[in-house]
Amino acid sequence: MRQTILARRYAKALFSLGKEQEKNEDYSEALGAIADLYKEESIENALVNPLYPLEARQSVMAKIAESAKADTILTSFLNLLVEKKRADILPDIACEMQVMVDEEQNISHGSVVSAIDLDDSLKEKIQQTLEKITGNKVILEASVDPSIIGGVIAKVGDLVLDGSIKTQLNGLKESIKGRE
Length: 180
Fold this sequence. Notes:
Blueprint: H1 2-21, H2 24-37, H3 41-48, H4 54-67, H5 72-83, H6 90-104, E1 107-114, H7 120-134, E2 137-144, E3 152-156, E4 159-162, H8 165-179
Parallel strand pairs: 1-2
Antiparallel strand pairs: 1-3, 3-4
Helix pairs in contact: 1-6, 2-6, 3-4, 4-5
């Protein structure tokens, strides 16, 4: 929980600076690319391991910033993370930054779960319906869960539309129990 709060604070600070420079999307993309580098343990270790001197960690982050074509503000931000021993939360910061950029552009992320694979036209219809309901552009992620038997469960933020047969059967079961 504490890491998320810290990540949100750092992301909010960078978001504010990016908004002034009109570079929020660029910063978000760069942070996302750098966060992807954290999947390699050696890179994350080189940035967060206190056994390495601060100068060495700063040098590694400077090379990463240079390869990400970061401007001076983003480079300073990345350097600050190393100095404050917060480089370990960079992937969380990238995630929070992306959420803020998406909110600014009225983009919501959602998911749709179905019992079978959905074809593209059906996914598009679900996406359009969710866009009408939320008033935002929706980016859908589809998954398959045979346990719902049939129908779909769509989620966007706090909105959950559950049209699964499993839920309907459970509702019927509760209704029958209530009559006894």
